[in-house]
Design brief:
By secondary structure, the protein is an alpha+beta fold. It has helices spanning 41-48, 71-75, and strands at 2-11, 15-25, 56-61, 64-65. Strands 2-1-3-4 form a 4-stranded antiparallel β-sheet, covered by helices on one side. A hairpin with a 3-residue loop joins strand 1 (2-11) and strand 2 (15-25). The longest helix has 8 residues, at 41-48. It is globular and about 30 Å long. The mean pLDDT is 93.
Length: 76
């Protein structure tokens, strides 16, 4: 399961790439991410896999809150 709770990503203290994203993907579900150029698709995916940390909010994958882990823990 993948769950995002109130996830925001703000660049340069002024550009809201993600704003209050709440998303839950159950095991076995398949979704596509579509949208206009600059809509935040890549930012969303990079936030889900924590290649990019959200400004605030929570990312949970398989019951583990990724946003609470340190870099070394994420690599493991």
């Amino acid at each position: 399961m993948i769950e995002l709770k109130n996830v925001n990503k703000i660049y340069n203290n002024k550009v809201n790439a993600l704003k209050n994203i709440n998303l839950k993907v159950e095991e076995g579900d398949i979704y596509g991410i579509i949208g206009y150029s600059g809509a935040g698709k890549s930012t969303l995916v990079r936030t889900i896999n924590l290649l990019q940390r959200p400004t605030n909010g929570t990312v949970i994958v398989s019951g583990v809150e990724l946003t609470s882990l340190k870099e070394a823990q994420l690599r493991d």
